[in-house]
Amino acid sequence: MDWPRGLDGLSYGGDYNPEQWPEEVWDDDVLLMREAGVNLVTVGVFSWARLEPREGEYDFAWLDTVLDKLHAGGIRVNLATPTASPPPWFTLAHPDALNVRADGVRQVHGSRDTYDVCAPAYREASRRIAAALAERYAEHPALAMWHVHNEYGSTSYSEHAERAFRVWLEAKYGTLEALNAAWWGSFWSQHYGEWDQVLAPRATQYLANPAHELDFKRFTSDAMLEHYKEQRDLLREANPEVPITTNFVFGQWVPVDPWKWAPEVDLVAFDSYPSHPDERAEQQSALHADLSRSWAGGDWLLMEQAAATVHSKDGAVAKTPGRMARHSMVHISRGSKGAMFFQWRAGRGGAEQWHSALLPHAGKNTRMFREVTEFGNTLPGIAHTVGEPVDATVAVLWSPESWWATSGAHLPAPVDYLENVAQIHRVLRDRGVVADFASPEGDLSKYATVIAPTTYVLSKAAAENLRWFTAGGGRLVASYLTGAVDEHCQVWLDGYLGGLTDLFGVRVTEHLPQPAGERRALWNFGAAERFCELVELRGAQCVTQYATGDLVEGQPAVTVNPFGEGEAWYVSCKLADDAWDRLFEELELAGPGGPGLDVVDRGPWRFIVNHTDQEAQVGHIIVPAGSWAVDKKPQ
Ligand code: GLA
C-alpha cells in the first residue's frame, strides 16, 4: 500500500490543532502551510471533547470545514482518532475506565492519556468514535492516512486489567500448574490454586516476582495492541485504500513490543525527542531512525519532533540555526519518508503552550518560520531518493523483553538496558557505521556482524537463532548478562549464556557487581564499570584480561571462539564507550562518517549531514559547516 496516500515525495508538516483557534485563523494556516512547503498535517489527535461533546452526539461541522479548506489548499490530512484523551463527560460517567497506577491511585482527567485499554466502556467508546470518524471521512479526498490514538502508553493495574491478564495467562499457559512452574511459584509462597488469585503486579511490600512482572508487561503491550486493532479494523473496513498507523517512541513512555506491533501498522511512525541538548541529540536521532527503519523493515515516517528546542531533564535548549534541518535529514537519510513535527502553530494556552512549533507565537516574520520555509521548499529537490534502501551489514539486537526484565530491582546490580543498546549504536555511528536493529528471534542472515548488548532474556528459540547465525559464518558479539535467564526469567544453569557455552567457548561462573564509580582495568582495553563476570575458558581465546580487581585480575575479560564458519565474541563486563570503540577497531567496523558527520548510502545516493562547525569533505562531496547534502555515491 502506498503511503501516505497521494504523496509521492517526502511528507512535511506536523500536528495541527485548528480547534484551538477561531475560524479566521484557518485560512491563514493554509496559506502559510503552502508558503512553508507543508503538504501533510495530523488533525484531531486530542479532539474527542470537540468531536463528541456529549455521549453519542457528534459535532463534525468544524472538522468538515477544516478538511475542506486543507483539501482546497492541496494539503493532505493524517486524520487521528482521538482516543488518547477521553473527554470529561466520559471519565465522569465511567470512572472505572480511568487507569490505575501500580500504587493503586486511580488517575483523573485534567491532563491526557487517562484511559484503561481493558475497561469495556472505554473500548466501546473508542470503537464508537473511530466508527463515526470512519463513516464521515473515509472517502474524504484530503485523507492521506489514519493515525490511531497517540503514543500508546497508559499502563493500568485496574481490576479490568487484572481480569484480562488472567484470560491472557490462561491462553498462554493453559494450566495453573504450568503457570506456577513458569513463575517459580514455590518461592515466597506464590503458588496459585485458582486463576482468580492472580493479581496485577501492584505495589507490594518488597521485591515482586520477575516472571509475573515480565508477563504483565507483555500482556499490557498485547492489550494495547488489541485496542489499536479494533480501531484499525473499523477504519480499514470503511476504506481499504487508506493506510493506518500509530506513533511509537523509544523508552518507557510507550511500553510496547514494536516487533509485534510493526506488522499490524501500514507504516511505522516514530516521535523523536532526543533527551540531551549536546551532540548526544544527534546520536539519539540516528538511534531513533535506525530503530524505526528496522521495525518497519524499510521506509517509515518521522511523525513528530520539536522544531526549535531540544528537551532534557533540565529544561529545553534552543536549537541553533540549521539544527532543525539537520535532525530532519538524519531521519530522512535513514529511511524516513519525511519530516513531521509537533506542532504546526504554537498554542496560546494549555500545558504545551511553550512547546515549539513550525509557526511560532510571534508569527511568520520570525527566524524560525523562515528556516522552516527554507527547509520545506528544499525537500522536493530530494524526492527522487525516496524508497532507496539503506544498506547495513551490522545489526544490534533489540530485545524489549530484556529491557523489561532488567528494569526489575532484583538484579545483582542495576542494568540500564536502553543505555547499553544506545551505547553500542552511538559508538558504531561515531565510527561511521550505519547499523540495523534486529529481534533476537528474527532473521539475521543478511548481517555479517550481530551485536547483542546485555541480551538478558534469551529464549531457546533465540539461542538457536544465534547458534545458527554464527555457525553459518556470522560474527556474534555479546556482552555481559546475555542469556542470563530464559523467557520465564529463570536462570540458565551451568554457565548462563542461554545455554550457548559451546558457541562462546566460555562458561560464566560468577557475577561480580562492583560499587558505582569503581572501575576494573582491562589490559589495553579501558576499564569495566559496575559489572563484570568471572569467565572460564572452554575453548575460546582470551582477547584481553582484567588487569586489576579481586577475583578477576588475570582472568579473561573479552574472548573469541571460532564456531562453524563464524566466530563468537564475549565481553564479560560493562565497557565504557572508548573500550567499545577499541573493540570495534579490532573488528574493523568503520564507515565514511564519524562523530558529528552522518554519512548514509542508499542505492545510488549518498546523504551527508555535517553537524560540525567545519566544512567536511567525503569523497568528492563537500558539505559546509552545519549543513547537509545529497549526491551521487562514488562508484
Ligand atoms: C508527544 C505527543 C505530542 C506532544 C509532544 C511534545 O510526542 O505525541 O502530542 O505532547 O509529545 O511534548
From TrEMBL:
The Beta-galactosidase trimerisation domain, residue ranges: 392-587
UniProt EC number: 3.2.1.23
Organism: Glycomyces mayteni
Family recorded in the similarity comment: Belongs to the glycosyl hydrolase 42 family.
Name of the featured protein: Beta-galactosidase
InterPro entries found in the cross-reference section: Beta_galactosidase_Trimer, Class_I_gatase-like, GH, Glyco_hydro_42, Glyco_hydro_42_N
Keyword Hydrolase annotated: yes
SUPFAM superfamilies noted in UniProt: (Trans)glycosidases, Class I glutamine amidotransferase-like
Lineage: Bacteria, Bacillati, Actinomycetota, Actinomycetes, Glycomycetales
Catalytically driven reaction(s): Hydrolysis of terminal non-reducing beta-D-galactose residues in beta-D-galactosides
Pfam families (UniProt xref): Glyco_hydro_42, Glyco_hydro_42M
Gene3D superfamilies xrefs: 3.40.50.880, Glycosidases (3.20.20.80)
Keywords for this protein: Glycosidase, Hydrolase
Glycoside hydrolase family 42 N-terminal domain boundaries: 15-379
